């Protein structure tokens, strides 16, 4: 467990903090450890946050299973986790960010870099953008699956006291879904198809419902995620493995399709399920390299294929919608495990037939 030696703090901040924090660390493929790591000395513009909950993301699972998430390959141990919420226990010395005692969600991105053009109002596309718990660069960017985390104050978003931290643990993935739905355009009165009803797809269903979609069909290989999607507002569900699934998907003729499975077969289903002149938003991250997708069908139907990657300031809208109750997403959470039981939690999270969003409790 953690040592109780104090981390040096600025004047006026007398709370003693542990010199180490219990953390969930990926060392290599198949090598996940719960161990203590040193707590960095905070920079003037960084705060110390006591983490309450962390949601296990697909990228966390990839680092555990394969030692890589896409082209981001582990070259050394890395603390996982970017879907985290907690409470500030030491505010930034320069006076920026929330005060001690403030519950916060975390925006895990650090935009930046040069060498490629991108719209100034879309920093998620900046070429040097880093993310908590990412091995895209070396040294890796540690995540925040830890009892205490030192985080730049600009990442912290204050939460209303009335919003439970357990619910707020969904802020980051819900922001990904919100950004994807915003890429779809006005959904009022529209027919929507969501391919892949894992946590992001299920959250997209909830956001689509809030956005006024009149009909929402969810598709998945497993019954459990379809049950979750139905509870969040899907009006119809289709099991992708059933004999008539292909015909039923094609019959949807959706105005907008959100592809969140991250598979070539899912994208093919999205193309077939869109109406002529419809829009397909690709939020699921497919493997790098060429993919077998029926692009000719997209051409002859004049479909709009639109990418969606992470999010920007939508996190503020998500927090407001969770706080006022207009976005109800608690049904996405199916399991909670103590951080010490992280390996069991990861095993459950990897089985989409039994779980939705799995939380670690710190």
CATH class membership of the largest domain: Alpha Beta
- The CATH topology assignment of the largest domain is Quinone Oxidoreductase, Chain A, domain 1
**CATH level 4 superfamily of the largest domain:** Medium-chain alcohol dehydrogenases, catalytic domain
The Cα radius of gyration reads 21 Å
Biggest sheet record = 7 strands, mixed
Structural class: alpha/beta
Rounded mean pLDDT score: 94
Detail the poorly predicted runs.
1-14
Distance between the termini: 13 Å
Tell me what the structure shows.
The protein has 362 residues and is of the alpha/beta class. It has helices spanning 58-66, 165-168, 171-184, 199-210, 223-231, 245-252, 264-273, 295-300, 314-324, 342-349; strands at residues 20-28, 31-38, 46-55, 68-69, 72-73, 78-79, 83-90, 103-106, 109-110, 130-131, 148-152, 156-158, 191-195, 215-220, 236-239, 254-259, 274-282, 304-307, 333-338, 357-361. Strands 3, 7, 8, 11, 12, 19 and 20 form a seven-stranded mixed sheet that branches. Strands 15-14-13-16-17-18 form a six-stranded parallel sheet, sandwiched between helices. A three-stranded antiparallel sheet has the order 2-1-6, with helices on one face.
In short:
The chain is of the alpha/beta class. About 25% of the residues lie in helices and about 30% in strands.
């Amino acid at each position: 467990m953690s040592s109780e030696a104090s981390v040096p703090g600025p004047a006026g901040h007398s709370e003693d903090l542990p010199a180490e924090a219990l953390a969930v660390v990926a060392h290599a493929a198949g090598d996940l450890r719960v161990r203590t790591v040193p707590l960095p000395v905070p920079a003037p513009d960084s705060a110390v946050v006591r983490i309450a909950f962390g949601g296990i993301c697909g990228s966390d699972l990839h680092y555990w299973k394969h030692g890589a998430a896409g082209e981001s390959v582990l070259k050394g141990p890395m603390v996982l986790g970017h879907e985290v919420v907690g409470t500030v226990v030491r505010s930034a010395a320069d006076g920026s960010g929330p005060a001690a005692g403030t519950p916060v969600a975390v925006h895990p991105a650090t935009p930046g870099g040069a060498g490629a053009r991108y719209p100034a109002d879309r920093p998620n596309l900046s070429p040097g953008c880093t993310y908590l718990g990412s091995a895209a660069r070396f040294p890796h960017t540690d995540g925040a699956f830890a009892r205490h985390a030192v985080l730049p104050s600009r990442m912290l978003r204050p939460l209303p006291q009335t919003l439970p931290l357990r619910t707020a643990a969904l802020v980051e993935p819900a922001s990904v879904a919100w950004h994807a739905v915003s890429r779809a355009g006005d959904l009022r009165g529209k027919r929507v198809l969501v391919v892949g009803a894992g946590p992001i797809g299920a959250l997209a269903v909830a956001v689509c419902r809030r956005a006024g979609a009149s009909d929402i069909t969810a598709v998945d290989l497993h019954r459990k995620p379809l049950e979750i999607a139905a509870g969040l507002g899907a009006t119809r569900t289709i099991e992708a493995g059933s004999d008539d699934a292909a015909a039923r998907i094609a019959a949807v003729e959706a105005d907008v399709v959100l592809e969140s499975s991250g598979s070539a077969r899912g994208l093919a289903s999205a193309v077939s399920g869109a109406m002529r002149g419809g829009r397909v938003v690709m939020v699921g991250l497919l493997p790098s390299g060429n993919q077998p997708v029926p692009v000719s069908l997209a051409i002859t139907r004049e479909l709009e294929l639109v990418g969606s990657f992470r999010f920007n300031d939508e996190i503020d809208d998500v927090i407001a919608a969770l706080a006022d109750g207009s976005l109800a997403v608690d049904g996405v959470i199916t399991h909670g495990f103590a951080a010490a039981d992280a390996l069991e939690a990861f095993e459950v999270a990897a089985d989409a037939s039994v779980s939705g969003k799995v939380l670690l409790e710190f």
